[in-house]
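To whoever picks this up:

The nightly regression suite flagged Putative 4-coumarate--CoA ligase as changed. Nothing in the input moved, so I suspect the structure step. Input below, exactly as stored in the fixture:
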Amino acid sequence: MSAPMDMLPKCDANYAALTPTTFLKRAAAFYSNRTSLIYEGTRFTWRQTNDRCCRLASSLLSLNIAKHDVVSVLAPNIPALYEMHFAVPMAGAVLNTINCRLDPKNITSILKHSGAKVFFVDYQYVPQAREALRILMMSSQPSMMPLVIVIDDIDSPTGVRLGELEYEQLIHKGNPRFVGIDVADEWDPISLNYTSGTTSEPKGVVYSHRGAYLSTLSLILGWEMGGEPVYLWTLPMFHCNGWTFTWGVAARGGTNVCLRNTTAYDIYRNIKRHHVTHMCCAPIIFNMLLEAKPHERCHITNPIEILTGGAPPPAPLLQKIEPLGFKVTHAYGLTEATGPALVCEWQAKWNKLPKDEQSKLKARQGISILTLADVDVKDLDTMASVPHDGKTMGEIVLRGSSIMKGYFKDSEATNKAFRNGWFLTGDVGVIHPDGYLEIKDRSKDVIISGGENISSVELESVLYRHPNVLEAAVVAMPHPRWGESPCAFVTLRSDTTVVTEADIIAYCRKNLPHFMAPKKVEFMAELPKTSTGKIQKFELRVRAKAFNVVESSDQQVIDPSYNEQILALSRL
Ligand code: ADP
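Regenerated output under the current build:
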């Protein structure tokens, strides 16, 4: 006989797919007159934003966009890009935000691989888009070319065109009462984000409505984002859909402050003018804020919450940024995890610790976001969990609904990315006795010197403590005796007088076990960065490989002419 609980009807009748587009409907209904978006001279309320998204979604349907068609967009953090995060899924389509720092060849690859049906282009990026479309045309049938729509400057239209249509015309022609295509299955795709390809070829990561919805809720909770936030768009919306805050700000009925250029001047100017409360950014932005000229800065009266991640934030940088009026929360994630998957949730008892202890705790990557099913660090050979001793390294693995559906058109890579239901991040970490995870490296970045593992992250953190160092990156350099040894690439603060390689090495030897100290320090005017602002270790590794160690003692001699030859070869 069935138990009473089993006799209850299935809830099919009240099933509603989890989708972040519902956050917009709710904001329009309950916060209708609150400011949804500010961009220089433009302001909208949530009622207007909803109205514009409905119009755009209906216009997309009138352009014959069908279910799950891909709509690509190449734009900085402007209102149109924000609106597309709702309008494109409301039309049943899949949003593909393209990194606007990519070159035309990369843009072509994405348009081709995604099979984009519509391609929105911000007026400032028309030259890159024109070239990308020219290359695409050479290898595609005319019927495969996307319909191109320019997004002109909303404040002062320039009249730039790349086809017949302009974004505001679509908004104008659309139906404000359009209700949006019903999401029948919450596992349906909502967006397609290409990885930046730091470690391998860019891959198309597909997010589901369910994953996006759950991640959004988790990040609001993990960051303790309260009601009516004023959110400054310092993080590109094209990066993992702005770590889900495109949808998250609507969920809180907050205000989006859009930003075309992420400069210190523009950040401080908008903070002051709009009383910003929240922003997300890679740690690299901290340097920009710290190095700002006196006339670019403003005095911050109420602490601004910063969520940082995407690269390890060195503890010394965390210590420097907070006295300026920023309160930092640290998150870790990757494109495949819909942005942040771990947050270093702060514990009140840590407030009593000395500041440098606090920064060290905050530099750890943290614990799983609430809606992730599980996180672990495993030995990939046995899939056994590592002990919680803060020392034993293994691969960070994740499981849960907010992990991607898979790589678009690449089942082989998708299968490789998962093992026994776990997503393998490719990052090496440890678990501390309190359960908090700390990343030690990307698996490809660990330096194995004489059988010892050296964490480049740990060494970089010491370099960042040197008073003259602005940026630092450590990679493996071939060594005849040790196999590999650490090589540091460093940029110096603008006010630095004379610092030598020997000074830096001596500083590291004083603060680290000697085997971990770099054997070579190369000073650079600027470190190479990826299109998402991360230090491009791949390029540095090529350079380090070229350092021809002609003596195998601890004091090596580098032959610089050899460098140039190898570098030239590697570029061929
Ligand atoms: P890509 O893999 O192409 O660089 P992602 O933006 O997905 O693009 O990068 C994710 C990677 O960035 C992670 O796998 C990890 O190596 C690194 N990362 C992200 N957040 C952190 C963090 N808080 N600390 C250290 N590394 C991080």
